[in-house]
Design goal:
By secondary structure, the protein is of the alpha+beta class. It is built from 16 helices and 18 strands. The chain has 4 domains: about 80 residues, Uridine Diphospho-n-acetylenolpyruvylglucosamine Reductase, domain 2 (2-Layer Sandwich); about 120 residues, Uridine Diphospho-n-acetylenolpyruvylglucosamine Reductase, domain 3 (2-Layer Sandwich); about 120 residues, Alpha-Beta Plaits (2-Layer Sandwich); about 80 residues, 2-Layer Sandwich (Alpha-Beta Plaits). Helix 1 packs antiparallel against helix 3 and helix 9 packs antiparallel against helix 11. Bound molecules: flavin-adenine dinucleotide. Flavin-adenine dinucleotide binds next to strand 3, helix 5 and strand 10.
């Protein structure tokens, strides 16, 4: 055993330092089943233990890679055989729940679904949800500034975070566990660590904002025949149900058709030949009143021909089925081996021109192609999956260049919610100026002059 491993075992005990088969028994990620690579996985049980580990690694110039549930979509916790992985899987407790002030303090290794289930017992909610809920951790959610399906009403991770505790690369503990909604005392450390993808330090604890669980939920799948009607419908919902719309998810025709026919063959909820489909959800405090208000908006939208068809959900299982059409990635994954996938943000007012130009350019690249578009339209976030055939040549980099050039032209962002990691690093300058990148580099050097934290992620 190498010196550093012996010292780590001395600090934490052998059970907390995994090596050999205990590492390779784990997958690289949710998306990649090949065996995980690392010199060791260290699993501290407290912030102080972690601080001792990081101080030791700092002295020895040892690269560290923080990992949560390894569910990120941008290769942001990829490790090599020389890295030491920091896993907070033993730091997964709810430290305190404050029902009066609507906050919860948690350790960063806590799994999102465990938090959701515990809060539900008190009729409370941490408004963050997506398909990886059973594996992803609060640390990973914060480090990626994750979004999900409720951003329209509650915001992304940054908006849900009140305080953090962090261990810096040299082992210094920064405890900034603020519990107040208002705390205007200088630079915002929460926002610096949130979205930093493990490149500045390790988040060990967090104070999160909570809400009451909605007492009512009204959901409808609606069809629109023009983009203008989609945006007018969104404005109508927002003005008639102020602050209440929790989701406004849009699927372009091709995506809806593929998913509905694969997941509900022969019993698609509505015809699949409309141009756009919206999954709209209204969360409120009174089922009877809210259902009435929601239906009233739908009726007037039909009268104005903003909607041409639709179904309103009556049961929880119907609701789940409709969300599956929006959320389930399997039909796409099974239809082709390889996709160029994107998570871009654009002004809603630019989206129609963007998608028209995108389709024309992909056609120009290759007449044989498939373009699927869907996303959190209410948040200005589109997901794109593109496949193109061009004389058997790899197409992904060409399509990336095409998409990101177009995103830049429309002043959008190359990453709306998934982050940068390794995967999007080379495209970062399409959304950030040289001065912004230089400032980010200075921030990284201030926190991590030895470049030992999650080497190479976000910045070259
Ligand atoms: C099915 C599915 C659906 C998804 N849907 C969405 C979605 O709708 N919206 C969305 O935003 N994302 C979505 N994601 C991706 C999402 O970003 C991640 O699932 C989640 O936020 C990452 O959490 P994790 O614990 O798995 O972190 P990991 O993947 O393990 O790590 C992610 C990053 O965080 C860093 N990190 C992890 N823990 C810490 C810590 N304690 N301190 C500092 N750095 C740390 C890592 O180094 C890495 O850079 C989805 C993923 C899947 C698999």
């Amino acid at each position: 055993m190498s010196d550093i491993l012996e010292q780590l075992v001395g600090l934490l005990g052998a059970k907390s330092v995994l090596v050999g088969d205990d590492i390779s028994a784990r997958n690289v990620s949710y998306w990649d089943n090949s065996p995980l690579l690392a010199m060791a996985i260290v699993r501290p049980e407290s912030t102080e233990d972690l601080a001792a580990v990081m101080a030791l690694c700092h002295q020895q110039g040892q690269n560290l890679v923080p990992q949560g549930g390894r569910t990120n979509l941008v290769e942001s916790c990829l490790s090599t055989a020389d890295d030491i992985i920091i896993s907070l899987e033993k730091m997964n407790n709810i430290v305190s729940l404050d029902e009066v002030n609507y906050t919860v303090t948690v350790e960063a290794g806590l799994i999102l679904e465990t938090l959701q289930n515990t809060l539900a017992e008190s009729h409370l909610m941490f408004p963050m949800d997506f398909g990886a809920r059973g594996s992803c951790t609060i640390g990973g959610i914060l480090a990626t500034n994750a979004g999900g399906t409720m951003v329209l009403k509650y915001g992304m991770a940054r908006a849900l975070l009140l305080g953090v505790e962090v261990v810096l690369p040299d082992g210094t503990i920064i405890s900034s566990l603020n519990e107040s909604l208002k705390n205007n005392t200088g630079y915002d450390l929460n926002n610096l660590f949130c979205g930093s993808e493990g490149t500045l330090g390790v988040i060990t604890k967090a104070v999160l904002r909570l809400w009451d669980q909605p007492m009512s939920r009204s959901t409808a799948l609606l069809a629109c025949d023009s983009f203008e009607n989609l945006t007018t419908l969104l404005k109508t919902f927002q003005s008639r149900l102020p602050g209440g719309l929790s989701a406004y998810e849009v699927m372009w025709n091709e995506y809806f058709k593929l998913n509905a026919s694969s997941l509900m063959p022969g019993r698609e909820p509505i015809a699949s030949d409309y141009n756009y489909y919206v999954l709209a959800e209204y969360a409120g405090g009174d089922q009877a009143l809210d259902g009435e208000a929601f239906n009233a908006v739908l009726e007037s939208a039909f009268e104005q021909s903003l909607i041409v068809d639709g179904v309103v959900v009556k049961t929880e299982s119907e609701r789940e089925e409709l969300w599956q059409i929006r959320d389930n990635p399997e039909p796409l994954e099974h239809s082709r081996g390889e996709w160029a996938c994107f998570d871009v943000s654009l002004k809603i007012s630019s989206m129609e021109s963007f998608t028209d130009q995108l389709k024309a350019q992909v056609d120009g690249y290759s007449q044989v192609n498939e373009v699927y578009i869907y996303g959190h339209l209410g948040d200005g976030n589109l997901h794109l999956a593109i496949w193109a055939e061009r004389e058997g040549q790899p197409f992904i980099e060409d399509i990336e260049l095409l998409v990101y050039t177009l995103v830049k032209k429309f002043s959008g962002s190359i990453s709306a919610e998934h982050g940068i990691g390794l995967e999007k690093r080379k495209w970062l300058s399409y959304s950030r100026s040289q001065n912004e990148l230089a400032l980010m580099r200075r921030i990284k050097t201030t926190f991590d002059p030895a470049e030992m934290m999650n080497f190479g992620k976000i910045l070259q």
